[in-house]
Each structure stands twice: as C-alpha cells, then as structure tokens.
Specification:
Largest sheet: 24 strands, mixed
Helix content: 25-40%
Strand content: 5-15%
Shape: globular
Amino acid sequence: MESNADTANGETVILNCIDPNSSGLHEDNEEIVISTVEVSQWNLTSLAHRPIIKIKANRQRLVQQSSYFHGLLCGSFSESCFDSISVHWDMESLLSMLRFIFGCSLDFTSENFLPLYEAALFFGVEKLLLVCRSWLNDVTSEGRIWPPQLHLGDLVHIWEYGRENATDFIPQLIDCLARNFIWMTSCDSFHNVPFELLLSCVKHPCLTVDSEKHLCDAILLWLAANTIPYDLLNSTGDAHLEILTEIRTSLLPLPFAAGKRRCPLFSKFAERSVDTILSLATSSSFSLANILGGDFSQLRIRLTEYTKILDLSGCPQISLPLLLLSMLPFSYSVDTMLTKQLNQLSLKLERSNLDVSRIPWETFPVLTFEAVEVVDFSNCPMLHLEAAIECFSKSFPSLTTLKAAYTLNFRTMKLYQLLQRCPLLSDINLTVESTPVIPAKVSVISSFPAVKLQMSTSFNEETCPAVSAFHFSRRLSNITKLILEGRTDIKDSDLHNIAECCPSLCCINLNACTSITDSGIADLVLRRVGLHSIFACDTLFGHNCVLSLCRDISTFDGVAMKTERNTNSLAHKLQILHIGGCKGISEIYLLELISQTQRVRSLCLRETQLDDNSLYKFSGSSLEMLDVSDTKVSCHAVGHVVQRSPHLKCLIARGCRHLLQEENNILENSPALSYNCPVLYYELGKSCNLDEISLGWGFSFFSFEALRPAIKMLRSFIVGLGGSLGEDGLKLVPTFCPLLETLILYFQVISDSVVRNVLETLKNLQVLALCYCFGDISSLSFQFSAPCLRKLKLERVTSQMTDDDLLTLTQNCMNITELSLVGCRRLISESQDTISNGWPGLISLHLEDCGEVTAKGVTSLKNCQALEDLLLRHNGCGIDRNFIIHAASRMPLLRKVALDVCDAKDGDFDLPDFNRRSLSIVKIARCNLKRRTLDSMKSGRCTTPVHAETLILTRDSEKLSRTVVRERL
C-alpha cells in the first residue's frame, strides 16, 4: 500500500469514485480504499456494487493516459492542486477503465462494450477507444455470430448509441447483422429490433438467408409483433409495410406463398406470388423471354459469399436458366446476348433431349460461392437436375449435403456422375414417393409390361452411358450417408457399384426399394463393413442379409445356430436397423440377428416374424427407439427390453394382440395389479422419459396412470385398435402430456368435451387425428382457436358436419396444411369453396364419403395449387373424365392422386402424360354395387358399393408401371 507521503509529494491522487446510479444502500457501509498498485488483484464482482470507493492512483499515469485527467490535474482547474478529486461515473465501467489504464487487459463482451466505449470517450482514453473499436471490428467481421459472445439486444443498443452520436461503426454493425440474419431472427429479442435497423439489414447487399421463405417469415413475425391490427393501421403502420416489397415473392415456395393468402398483411403479395410461380411452373413453353420485361433482381436467388445453406425446396418455378441467372455476376443479367443464350438453353431443355455435356458452359461465367455446404432443391420438378449438378460443381466447390427428394427426372445411373462432379459430398437424399405396390402387402391380380418413358430432361443415352464401378478406382467418393428411399429404379447392380465407389458409407436408406433383392443388399453389407445404419423396410431383406451381418460368429447348419456373442460381427456394430415389413426373415434367423445387436439405438421390426423368443435375446442397453408393431410379442418380452433401455425415447407397439392376452393373464393371477400398474407400463413409467409412444391392445386407463412419470415430456401419443382410455383417461391427456404435438386416436370413445379440452389446453398441438372413434362429435368441438394445428384427420367421427361447421373450422384452425375428412355425409359441393378459401396452402387433401362434394364436378379445389397428395372417393358422381390431366397441369407439385370410378361422370378417367409432370402415383379404385337387404334386393336398388380392385400406375425415372391389386389403396 502506498504511504501518505506519496500523496503529499503529488505522486498519488485519491479518486473518490461515486456511482450516480447507486441507491447508496449497501449491506457493508465500511469505507473501501484500494490502490492501483494492486490493480491486478481487484475483485470487480464485489467492488462494482459499492456506491463509493476511494482509489489511490498514480497521478502521472492518469495524466498520460486520459485527456480528462490531464486537463483536470494539470490545467487551470482548482482540482489540479488537490490531493483528492471526485469522479461520478458508473462504478463497473470506471473500475474496468482504470484497470486498463494501469496495465490490465480487458475481457470484452457485447454487454460491456458500450459502457467501456462511453467511459473511454468521456475520459479521453484513446488507447481504450482503439481497443474497443478493434474488438468490435473483430467480432463483426466473423462469418457467423455465436452466443454468448454477442447478444442481439446489446448490438441493438450499440447501433442506437452509434446512430444518436454519429459514430462510424454503424455500417459494420448493419453489415454484420445482414450476414447473420438467420441468427438474428432466431433470437428472442428479434421483435425489439428497430424498424430502421431491420430495413437496413434487409436492403443490404450481404443479406444472407437460407431461402426467401425465411426472410418472409422473419419480416411477418416482426410486423405481427409491431403493427396494430390490419383494419386500424395508421400512417406509421403503412410505412412499416414498405419492407414487404423487399421480399422476392417470385422465389417463394409454392405451398408457403399459397398459405399466406390468408395473412392480412401479406395477402396481396401472396396472390401475386402464386400467379407468378404458376406462370413460370406450368407454362408449356417456358422461356426467360416471358420475364425479360420484369425486374431481374426479383428473379435472382439470394447468394452471397457467406451463404452456407441454399434451400429451394417446394419451388416448382426454379429452372436451369433461372438458376444460372442467379449464379452470374449482376452485370451479366442485363446483357442482351447472354439473355438470348439463356432463352435458347431454356427452349432446348424443354423441347429436346439435350446432352448436358454439349451445353456451352464457357458462355455462362458463373460465380463461385465457397461457403455453400448444403443445397436443398427437393420438389423442384422444373429443374433439370443433371444440368444443375454441373452448375453446383462449378459454383459450390465446398458442397457436402445435397437434398433432392421427389425428383423423378434424375436417373439412378447418374448418381456416379454426381459423385465425380462434387467430390466433397458426404450426404445425399434422393427420396421419392414410395410405391404402394409392396409385394408383402398387396395381392396382385394382374400387371402390365412397363412402359419406358422418354424424359425430356434426360441425357442422351448414347453420348452418356452408364458408368461402371471400376471407373472410380482412382477417385473414390466421400459419401457417408445415402438416402434412396422409394426408388424402384435401384437394382442390385447399383448397390454393387455404390459399394465399390463409396468406401466411407456409414448410413444407407433403401426403404421401399422394391427392385433390389436379398442378395443385392447382402452384397452391399459384405463390401461396406463400416455401415452402422441400415434402413431397409419393405424390401426383400432376408436370410442372406442376416448371414452377412452375423457372418463372423454365426454358422447355420440346418436349423441349429451358434448364439454366442462376438464383438467383431457387423450386427454388433449397428446403431440403426430398420427392417419393418420384411416378412422373409424366419423366427430363427431373426433371433440370431437380434442377439447380436448389442449397440443398436434405433430398431424397427414392425410386421416381421418377431416373437418373444427373439426379443428376449436382445441384450443391448443403448436403445432409444423400438418399433414392434403388428408382431407377436408379449408385454413381458417388451418389458425385458424396456428394463435394459433407460434411454428409450420412442416405443411403437400398435397391433400387438399378444400384449392384451398376456396382460389379461397377469390381471387374472394378480387382481391387485390391475388397479395399480400393469407390468410393461410400470417398467416404462419407472425407468423411461418418452418423447413418443404408440400403443393399442391391452392399453387402458390404468396403463396410462402407470405411464405418467414417463410421459411428462411426451411429444407424440397414438392409441390404436385394442386400446381403451375411456373419456376420463382422454381428459387427462393434456394434464399428463402438456407438451404434446401429435395426438392420434383410433376406435376410442370421445365427446365434444374431450376434443374441446384438447384444443383449448394443448397449445403446441400440430397433429390431431380422430379415426373411427365412438361418440359423434359436433361443431362445438372446434370453437377454440388452434393456430399451431397443421394436420387434421376426422375420419368417421363427424357425420353431421355441415358446410357451416367446416367454415367454423377454417376460422379457428387457419394453418392446416393436411386435411382428411371421411364420412362427413352432409357436405355439399359448395364445401369445395370453403376448403380452398379457408386453407389455400393445403398440400394434402383426402375426402371420402363426404356427401355431395364432387356431385357437380371439381372446380374450386383446383385453386389449392400447392397440393401434393389428393384423394377423392365416393363424394358424388360428377368428376370429369379429364380431371387428372387438368389437376396435374394446375398443380405443379401434385405427386399422388387417388380416385374411384364410382365418382366418374363419364364412367372412367383419362390418364395423364407422365413424362412432364410431378405426378408419380395414380390410384383408381373400382367398386361393385351390392344389394344391402332382402327388401332392397326385391326392389332392385343397389345401394352399397363394395370394393373390387384398384388400378395403380407408378412412375420412376425410367418407366411407367401398371398394376391391378385386390386391396383398396
């Protein structure tokens, strides 16, 4: 500690630091005296809360470092000769500044930056001002902002301070927030961002968003929080709406734009957006000449040097010329010669089989965007995928993830070119709609020879033949995850080639790939020993695959097998195994496979030959998901697995009749147990914390009570046939599961009060399905607003629903995108208007046995242009013969259509051209009419339609298949 003599000699001055914001009250009123000699030992946490602190400081150091203290201690002020001066300032920032002056470093955060900057500015500490600016430059120059280094609220305060004081760091803050706009919108305080700052970010050339949808959502979210109701908008509100003009509405996904037609603030923009999208997507002779008169900036996809994710999913208007336009320098977009070449390219791609290798790529000087890692163009039927891949390989050299789901015009054989063009790719999703013709699930009456399709968006076969596996011997792929779900064009030879050129493959999804065989999958497994995740549901996965997975430890001698463990087996290393619907695996092979899956986290065995013997052999302890629905397992066997799986999050066990049989035996032997907790549910309640559960046979009110400890965080709850919660149990669902997002009930006893309770209390509910339940519900059930509800199924539970009831439903559940109504026999043809006006953004619509909805034809429903899945059956005999063709032309994303000949006005339907549309599955059912009673038979009335057969047309990248099955699909 310095002596009093130092002060007397003028070497030291005492600073009486007073915090003007302090109340003056402190638990410890003892005078605090500290010295700058011990500055490194100051405890700022405790000192900052003191109202007054005396600090002995070196006079010369203060004078040298601070212009404020230089003027005060060396100038003509009376304080210059004092040994003690008073300083009124925020205590924490003052102490931090003094620590800096006397040689200590500072830890900057977005929270303390502004107080330190203000202190440095007021006291004239130039070095601290430079350090403050340097820190702000560093953190705002990063490509991404990650909390807790910066907080949006603090950045807003810095911006407001800079704006009020005309500082020069305003541009860099706007630049930073524009580059990190997605992060900004994810912050809880986003709605508090000043309008001027938000508008500056949106107009900034470096604005970086994943898609135009994200920008639109963010702006509408801000406006909803900061704008008064639409019918009371004043001049300020109108001024705020100018920001909506910054959205490039022609680039919005069609389902999103269509759904926003009911948004008061955005309805006019949405209408124009849908019109533009449809004109680009449905034109039979699409050319950029159609849009040359418009603003090219509105047609350029937002790509900046900071873009990491490019999401174009659900945009049927996206074409190769439009994509190229977005990748060219802006100056090129007004070049007459270049636009002419883009027009020619568009027409050639539309009208002929243009070989992509012959496109003059050198005339399109595309830019390079090094930061792009993820591209999603799922559901973009107009995009010439194989040509787009050429663009991606040139513009996105860092591409690691490619999502191209529901893209039929990409032939599987071109997968190898894709792997060559984009060598860093590690994750590819080529999912398509799964065929309904699954051999194990349908009874085929007849099938017709497949018709080879002439794809206008294909390569020329002669100039671009299939690539053999050996071609990749020198350049192997980095693919670790490959999703081929639903692709019936995948053959065993493709799996062989994939195994050859993808040595790093860890996860493969072959669900519903019905053209591959057991041997083909087994060959892949043998060649790729690094596989730890296999999805092969509804395939021919069978004995050969089991042998491959267990090959290091299993020997099969007739029926006898070895069952000892061996940690070197492939099965032992599996983390995910989904083989649901694979009925070709016998019980003994299934037992062997399960006995080796000690590390598996997700196991799907639905609709297999699974029994208790096999399930008892499971010895793993890492299980998080188990699906044993429609198998022969008992509650004891499932309980055995649950006991060993404390991390279990998802249990699916619907359709397991043995659960009921076993439970009944237990209840008979132990009556007391029936009133407390059945075995399986007791185990679940005791050891698990579930996110999802699906149960049926044997599930009761008492089971539900036993589950209560495990379902506090439940997100999805499904009760199927054989389960019976009763009205009392259903009323407890919101209490037991307050976070529920999905509730699906089959064959339960329900009432208006149950449904009202669910809608009123479950604020996060997104999916509600009431199917074949007892106790007809009325319009009173839907008097409560459910803005989060996205998917609604009302099947055989609302027979008295009228068009007025349907209107009430559209007003209270405005955001539904998937709707299924079955058995609503009082609906009329005008209900089409109610549906299309109330839910313009529908992507799935199923109407069956719904009165006279289609008795006068289908007109208004065609205004639901974003539909992807449409089912109309037994709703009135008025559907035109050419309905499928017209629907496919007006709905560019339509993939599935299901109709019934009973509803055909002319007795049949014309089939569409499958070459140019998204349509991949058409199902046309046929019924026979059966006399219902002896009296009706005598009177000659045939009143009851009885299903006879279904014609199914399925399309893949190569062919169109026609099959007739007995099932009604």
